[in-house]
Amino acid sequence: MSIDLAGKTALITGASGELGRVMARTLAQSGADIIIHYFSNLAKAESVRQEVEQLGRRAFVISADISSLDSVLQMRDTLQSEFKLPEIVIANAVSQYSWTTVLEQDPADYLDQFNSTVLQAVHLSKAFVPHMIQQQGGRIVAINTESSMQNFPTQSAYVAGKRGMDGVYRVLAKEIGEHQITVNQVAPGWTISERDRNNNTEHSESYEQSVPLKRRGTDQEIANVVAFLASDLASFITGAYVPVSGGNVMPSI
């Protein structure tokens, strides 16, 4: 048994980022063609395109502001006319900001997180779910976070956005399930990325001691779960929030 995405096309938002590029590579290795979304870093997006094409898959690089419905709809129209609409949508992009306490956090940061998480979910759904309904099938996989269950100090804007996003995707899973479209979330822990490997920052003893598996996860381990949920192997899983955190958070029943 293997993950087979042959004949599928996957859109990955934020595909030029640390985790996004590994997901792009992993889905391409599983046979999918890749739509590489980026916001501003064209050079990194082109680097991901080269990786995907070296794996023998087609790639298309496109920029869009995922917080703007008009921009996302324009991305859809461009894909429809110049490449292909995706059967798989990976919602990975998120805006970055400095974390501080609720009393110190700029209210604009909360709006920014809402726009890049909750509204990204809405915009991607409006743009790409109708095609999935026509095809009577599709996969949506969103990147959440273990922080949504931890609620630690200084995480408030990030947690607020991701928990709001969680609500949208759980409702969406119920609304479109009859069309054999699955909607799931992957919630990474504090993940080792290429940046960590380059900077020798892979380890944090205090964090690792809190994790049952006593280590940080890797970007590849996150991408593996994304690929599984995007595949037919996960055809009867929908509405799930799946921590990939070494047991650091455990949803209850």
From TrEMBL:
One of its GO terms (molecular function) is oxidoreductase activity. Residues 192-213 are annotated as: Disordered. Signal peptide: none annotated. It comes from the Bacteria. Residues 193-206 have a biased composition (Basic and acidic residues). Keywords: Oxidoreductase. GO terms for biological process: bile acid metabolic process. The keyword Oxidoreductase applies. Pfam families: adh_short_C2. Belongs to the short-chain dehydrogenases/reductases (SDR) family. PANTHER family: OXIDOREDUCTASE, SHORT-CHAIN DEHYDROGENASE/REDUCTASE FAMILY (AFU_ORTHOLOGUE AFUA_5G02870), SHORT-CHAIN DEHYDROGENASE_REDUCTASE FAMILY PROTEIN. This is SDR family oxidoreductase. It comes from Paenibacillus zeisoli. The lineage of its organism: Bacteria, Bacillati, Bacillota, Bacilli, Bacillales.
